[in-house]
Amino acid sequence: MSRKALIVVVIIVLALGFGGYKFYTTQINGISGLKIVSNPPTNIFLNDKSLGYTPYDDKQPPGEYILKLVPDETASSVASWQGKIILAPTILTYVRRDLGSSELTSSGEIVSMETINSSDAQIAVFSQPDAAVFVFDGQEKGSTPYLLRDVVPGEHDVAITSPGFNGRTVRVSVKSGYKVTVNFQLALSSSSEATSSAVPAGTVNETVSKEPAKPYVVIKDTPTGFLRVRNNPSTSALELVQIKPAEKYTFLEEKNGWYKITYDVGKEGWIAARYADKVD
C-alpha cells in the first residue's frame, strides 16, 4: 500500500469515530422529519423560531428553512452555525454539526433524500472544501462533487477526505427510486492550523498590501475564510496557496469562470471568479 493510500485509510478510520447514520423516511403523510445533533449542545432556530436545544428529533412542515445553531453565552470559544435546509414531504433530513472556535475548525454534514424519475438508487456527495476524495464502502470513487448511480439498495458508508482536513464518514440507507444527498463540511486538522499560522504567507500579504495596477481583483468573503489559488482553472488542479478576503491581486485573464492572477512576485495562479470582484 502506497504512503498516500495509507494516509487516506487512516483518515477514514478516524472519521468513523463520528458514528454512522441510518437514513429513513417518516411515515406521517405530508410531514417532514428533522433530526439535529450537535457537539456541544446548542440552541436551535428554524427561520428564527426557537426549537429548543440539540439533540432534536421531531417533525416540521415541508419547505425551505434557515437553520441556526447558537451555543450558549457560556460557550464563548464555540462558533455559531447557519445554513439552508430543504425539508421534503415524508422524508427525514439529518443535520450534524461539530462546532469549533471558528468556521475553519467546525465540521458536519447534512443528509437528505429526494425521489427521482427512475428505479435507480443514487448518492450525491458535496463538500467544503471542494475536490475532496469521495470514498464509497472503502473504495475511492473520485472527487467531489460526485453523483454515484446504480447504487445497490441498502446501507452504505460514505466518506470524504482532503489533505490538511479531518475526514468524515456517515452511514446512509438508500432505496430504489431515491437519491440521497450528503453535504459535508470538513474542519482543518490541528496540524494544518499550526502550519497555516507558521507558513511564510507574509510574503503574499506584503505583496498585496500595495494597491495593484488596474485591472485587479478583490477577494470576496468565502465559506472557509480563504480562497484557494490553483495552477490550472479547475477544482481538481493543484493548490498553490491560500489567499484571504479583501485582498487585491493583479488580474491577468479569464477562462470558464476562473480568473488568472499574480498572487506574488513572479507567481501566477487561478481562482474561482465567483469569489472575486474584478476592478477595471
From TrEMBL:
Domain SH3b: 214-280
Pfam families: PEGA, SH3_3
Entries under InterPro entries matching the protein: PEGA, SH3-like_bac-type
PROSITE patterns on file: SH3B (PS51781)
Highest taxon listed in the record's lineage: Bacteria
Name of this chain's protein: SH3b domain-containing protein
